[in-house]
Amino acid sequence: MQLIAVFPYGSVPLKTYLPDGDIDLTALSCQNIEDGLVSDVRAVLHGEEINEAAEYEVKDVRFIDAEVKLVKCIVQDIVVDISFNQLGGLSTLCFLEKVDRLVAKDHLFKRSIILIKAWCYYESRVLGAHHGLISTYALETLVLYIFHQFHVSLDGPLAVLYRFLDYFSKFDWDNYCVSLKGPVSKSSLPNIVAEVPEKGGNTLLTEEFIRGCVESFSVPSRGPDLNLRAFPQKHLNIIDPLKENNNLGRSVNKGM
C-alpha cells in the first residue's frame, strides 16, 4: 500500500484568499506512482460528478497535462485545483508565513496582500495567471519587495497599496527585472547583478534571513535541465526570491 498525503497550499492556508478564489491542493506520493494517482483521482471525481447522491456537488472535472499535472473541478461552486508532488507551492507557503511573522504588526503583510490582490483582481483586472495575467505568487513577491524596501513607513494596508501603486507605476519594466536585492538590468542577464536602491541600507530582510529561507525552502525543479537554465526573459520579469532562475512573470501575455 502506497502512502499518500494531501496538503493545501496557496492563498487558503495563508489566509489571503478572495471570495472568488480557488482552493489549491497537492497530493504527495512516490514519483513512480504519480501517473496512476492522477488517474485514480480523476476517476473518483468523475464518479462523484455522476453520483446524484453525492454529499457535495462535483462538476466540470478536467485534466491538464502540463509540466505540472493538474486535475481541476468545481465543488459546491468553488474551483478546486489538485496538483501532484507540487513541493514548490508548499515551500512558498512556508516562506511567506515566515515573512509575515517577521513583519508582525497584526499580520500587516497578509492584510496588505489581501487588499492589493482585491485591487488587482476586481479593479485593474491584472491578476490571473490562467488568463495571461500576473500570478498570485508574483504579486505577493511584488508586495514583499515594497515591505523589504519601505517597511519603516508602512503602518497599514492602505499605505502599502499607495506605495505599491506609486513605485511600480514608475518602475522601468522595459529595461529592468524586479528582485529583492534591487532592480536588475536586463542587459546584465544571464548574470543577475542588482542595482542598489536609492534608499538602500535599511531593508527589512537581512542577507542572512534570505539565505536561510533559500536553504530551507528551495525546491529543485523537476528535471535537471530546468535547474541549470538561465533566467528566461518575458514581458514582465520578476525574480523568484527562492530560485534566481525562475521568472515569476512568465505567465504574463503581452497582449493581455
From TrEMBL:
PAP/OAS1 substrate-binding-related domain ranges (all copies): 103-255
InterPro entries attached to this UniProt entry: NT_sf, PAP-OAS1-bd-rel, PAP/OAS1-rel
Protein name per its UniProtKB record: PAP/OAS1 substrate-binding-related domain-containing protein
